[in-house]
Amino acid sequence: MSHRKAIGIDLGTTFSAAAHIDDYGKPQIIPNSESERITPSVILFEGENAVVGTLAKNNSVAEPERIVDFVKREMGKPRDQFYREFNGRIYSAEELSALILKKLKGDAERFLKEPVTDAVITVPAYFNDAERTATITAGQLAGLNVLQIINEPTAAAVAYGLDKLEEDQTVFVFDLGGGTFDVTVMRIEGHNIRMVATNGDHRLGGKDWDDVIVNRVAEEFDREHGENPLLDLQSYQDLQSRALAAKMQLSSRERTAIVHSYNGKSVKVELTRAEFEKRTQHLVERCKTICEIVMQEAKMQWSDLDKVLLVGGMTRMPMVREMIAKLSPVPLGNEVNPDEAVAIGATIQAILLMLDEEEKSGEKMLPEETRQQFSSHDGALMQITNITSHTLGVVLWDDRQLEEYVFPMIRKMTAMPATAKNYFGTASANMPRAVVRIVEGESSLPGECVTLGTCDVELPPFLPKGSPVELVYEYNANQILEVAVQACGNETKISIERNTGLAPHEVAQAKAGLAALNVS
Ligand code: AMP
How far apart are CA 242 and CA 260, in angstroms? Predict the structure, then answer.
């Protein structure tokens, strides 16, 4: 019997959290080695050490050049588009995320006093193929067997126990975190959680609210002293953390004051909640618009909803709650801590997946108590039906218009896993090979879509123009795309060659490289 221990991980833009199922079958947040329930997703490089969490965050003011934060926003980007260099070594977004995951894994092992082998990691519902692949790679680099990548709103619904309720219901998950915004409509029927529609903006989050305060204070500083305190990185970071603290205070208090010193001069700016809300009204409006779009995509009225779940620290803000309360007549779900819901849901899914694996293989991996206690809580494995958040297409040649266009293979909002098969004719006679370009996006113009990669298949000689090429797109439960091309009896099937992130042969190399670094 090989013993395994699984955890659920919410790998957040500003904060991350890990959870496990305890011996009593109850999901619990795992505190980090600083005894905190959430860990800032911030890394500080110090020689051979990578310090992750609050210590790194606190140092971000003193040593901003050795700090990395907001890595989640860079996930899926190839190395030439995003990298950070420390001590002569280049780190990709996956490697940096892997350091955060290593910290969570290491702290969990210290707390649980056993090795952590497996994890379910959550991602925003609108994460695309490259971003999901990069998240899996990050998990592998951290030495974790990634059981599954699940969407954050799905994890939240599981944490709220909505998968176990007797009545079917429609749920709206509003997730506003430090750096991302995500709204999802879900239908829960029996043990099936089905995503109906999803939308979001991964450049909208708490930081945008903080920036409004930062700019307000900087303006005042400039007015009084004729100097811009944001030009100095240290002063900027310092002001950012003051702004964040002020924003959080304004969630429970009517007014606050921000004091900022730079170059021996200082300012004090008084800020009331009313003024702050006025200055950030446009941000709440952006959230509202996305909520309305997703309801239209779901073809639903607000009165069709049974519950609204709030996820992400920013949903503690009164102006955000008021906006949602005005939109929707249904009560806001408050029972679960918005910072912890996603990690809790992920760990429940991790245990369910392992129970399922045990059942299929007959091999016992979980401690007997966990199995019994968990099964008694919930016998059946929850079924998650995700939908695609982007259209996946192929670039074809239009003979009449003499231009390239995008043919949609799997349309946005298709239930997953999804398979699409289609046939295309070769563009000219005697083509030596068919090159298939795979794109993601809603436009029919290739230039407006993101190229995911290309598939290249060799063709037999002397083929006439228009010879059939079979193209199969397969989207698996992790929302990772596999593409196969078959041409003219040539059985060659080729998987998509991604032009983003780390290639498989680079993963082992990167893993070895990261092992040389002490993560704490
Ligand atoms: P998350 O990424 O879900 O952990 O959300 C973190 C974001 O929520 C950050 O921007 C925090 O500043 C913000 N946040 C946390 N607590 C509060 C609060 N009480 N009031 C306002 N914003 C908060």
Answer: 8
Residue nearest to atom 16 of ligand 1 (CA): 313
| 103 and 153 inside one domain | yes
Domain co-membership, 444 together with 370: no
Determine the pLDDT at residue 363. Answer: 85
Ligand 1 centroid, distance to 133 Cα (angstroms) = 27
Instruction: State pLDDT tens for residues 83-141.
Output: 999 988 999 999 999 999 999 999 999 999 999 999 999 998 878 778 888 999 999 99
- Tell whether 300 is covered by a domain: no
pLDDT at 1 over 80: no
Percent of the chain surpassing pLDDT 90:
51
Lowest mean pLDDT among 198-202, 238-242, 503-507: 503-507
Distance (angstroms) between ligand 1 centre and the Cα of 198 equals: 22
Residues 148, 58: one domain?
yes
> How many C-beta atoms surround the C-beta of residue 508 within 10 A?
12
Q: Which 8-state DSSP code applies to residue 408?
A: E
Q: Which helix (H) or strand (E) holds 423?
A: strand 418-425
Residues 123, 264, single domain; the answer is: no
Ligand 1: distance of its center to the CA of 370 in Å?
A: 33
Give the β-pairing of 84-86 and 89-91. antiparallel
Q: Which atom of ligand 1 is nearest to the CA of 314?
A: 8
Q: Are residues 20 and 152 in the same domain?
A: yes
Range(s) of the domain holding residue 262: 206-279
Q: Which mutation among 42, 311, 314 tests ligand 1's pocket best, with the greatest number of atoms within 8 A of CB?
A: 314
Environment class of residue 377 by beta-carbon count within 10 Å: exposed (0-12), middle (13-18) or buried (19+)?
Answer: middle
Q: How many domains does the chain have?
A: 3
3-state secondary structure 308-360: EEEECHHHHCHHHHHHHHHHCCCCEECCCCCCCHHHHHHHHHHHHHHHHHHHH
Within a domain: 61: yes
Task: Tell me if 489 is assigned to some domain.
Answer: yes
Average the pLDDT over 418-436 and give the result: 86
**pTM of this structure:** 0.81
Task: Decide: 245 in ligand 1 pocket, CB within 6 A.
Answer: no
Q: Is 122 within a domain?
A: yes
Question: What CATH number does residue 272 fall under?
Answer: 3.90.640.10
**How far away, in angstroms, is 207 Cα from ligand 1 center?**
9
Q: 129-160, pLDDT tens digit by residue?
A: 788 889 999 999 999 999 989 889 889 988 88
- The per-residue pLDDT for 259 is 97
- Return d(Cα 244, Cα 316) in angstroms, integer: 13
Beta bridge partners of 8: 19, 120
The per-residue pLDDT for range 354-372, each reduced to its tens digit, is 888 888 888 888 877 777 7
